[in-house]
């Protein structure tokens, strides 16, 4: 009986170790770290308004890379929110903008494609494609006339993997695993004086 219990214990230990390899627990959610962000007013060749540039750094979780190589596209979203403080009520959202990027892999050509705003660019390696996802430039987020005194306003940027665009079975899986999560959380961005309008709206 003692030998049988030892064999059972050894089998249980082996199964537990195998499950840990297949389904790691306690893994921290992948974090996208904001490296820099800036708000500017107007950009050459663009319609007048407020623009954002932002740069993030992150390592894409291995399950997402594996899914990409199986032909499942990944969708990422840059977000911008501008609010105005009100002493008599909650802050008022005066501008919101989202910028979506699609990353895909073609198993036949072995090339990566980054798509956004109707444009597509092809790359030979994953490392070449990733900077277009991590960095955003000349992103028009609002019209003129929105910002009065910068001290009355709060601007935030964020970045995340849009799990709602994953296939339904993967959406269920992502809800139970940090391996499918990538987000920066909200990060405040200073509003420069030159971004303010000379005649702010109420």
Protein architecture, described:
The protein is α+β, with helices and mostly antiparallel strands and 202 residues long. 22% of the residues lie in helices and 39% in strands. It is built from 4 helices and 11 strands. It has helices spanning 2-22, 62-69, 126-134, 168-174, and strands at residues 30-31, 33-41, 50-57, 74-84, 92-106, 111-116, 119-123, 135-142, 153-161, 182-183, 187-189. The strands form 3 sheets. The protein has a 6-stranded antiparallel beta sheet with strand order 7-6-5-4-9-11. A 3-stranded antiparallel beta sheet has the order 2-3-8. A two-stranded parallel ribbon has the order 1-10. The radius of gyration is 23 Å and the shape is elongated.
